[in-house]
Specification:
By secondary structure, the protein is an alpha/beta fold. It folds into two domains: 158 residues, NAD(P)-binding Rossmann-like Domain (Rossmann fold, 3-Layer(aba) Sandwich), CATH 3.40.50.720; 160 residues, Dihydrodipicolinate Reductase, domain 2. The chain has ten helices and 14 strands. The strands form two sheets. Strands 8-9-10-7-11-12-13-14 form an eight-stranded mixed beta sheet, covered by helices on one side. The protein has a six-stranded parallel beta sheet with strand order 3-2-1-4-5-6, with helices on both faces. A hairpin with a 2-residue loop joins strand 12 and strand 13.
Amino acid sequence: MLNKIKYKTAICGIGRIAYSLEKDPLRTKPASHIGAIKNNDLMKISEVCDISGFRLEDFYKNEQSQNIDFYFDYKKMAYKSDCNIAVIATDSFSHVDIIKYFVENMKNLKSIVCEKPLSLDYISAKSIENILINKKISFYVNHTRRWNINYLKVKNIIDKGKLGKLTQIVGFINAGGQKYMGEGPILHDGTHLIDMVLFFTGEFPEQVFSDVITENNIEKCVNVFFKTQNNIDVYMNLSSDKKYFFYEIELYFEFGKVIIGNQRFDIYKAETSKSFTGFVELSKVDDMSVFDFPIYNNRNFFDILYNEVCHDIKNKKINLHSYYETLKVQKMIHCILKEVKKE
């Protein structure tokens, strides 16, 4: 049996989402970039870079048998690299500089997987477009729910009109009081909510209204309102003022309602009331097979992401779809925050 070609992969940043979440006993595996790469028969980790000696030492102790090269400096790693795939999971403010350097200096680079948010601002996120096109580099941003089966089912309900026309979306996210390197809820977990709202509506609104409360120059609570050209009313609340993590989206249709979030996916259909004569009420759907969903890949979203990366390299496809969808998220954040005067 012939050995499969393995795409050499470089990891820049081996913190929480890149590695340590794999150690969380409660999370579905793989729970990290490195966990997913190790789970993929077509990939091989060849190089790892991090500014933390502690993280590098911890990784070396656990992965030393794989003949991996270790670096403190991403530029030195890029200069010597012969990798096909680069994963960037560093602090958000560093993403764009690292992307540009990798594209210009990694001679065999075919694909980049970057953590969200791509950048702290829209202009810098937009600045990598031409170099990706010119160097023919595929680019993926880890907005995880794009590859989640339940969210794909919701998109199917919308696109096929299985509950009638979508009329309203209400989304909530609370980051549990966490702040990351100057990022408030909108730039951290809020990017997931914005990405899903744009995914479900399929369009970017002409006008966005927002109300932002800041604390120590970081947004603490953000309220966002807009109406799409297809007359879908959207409201989002993104906050970090509560002591728990919460993520949930409610979608209202002509003939039903969907609630989806962390550990939740419920569908309700309009039916004749069993309690009041002449009324129609919502009833929870217990058997979702009635919606005749397509057969989806039942694998972990991380697995699906990296399968797509490998598939595109194998088929010599330049894939920038994720990049352009992420640009819409960055533009939405820009629209929300551009008029805000920080304290």
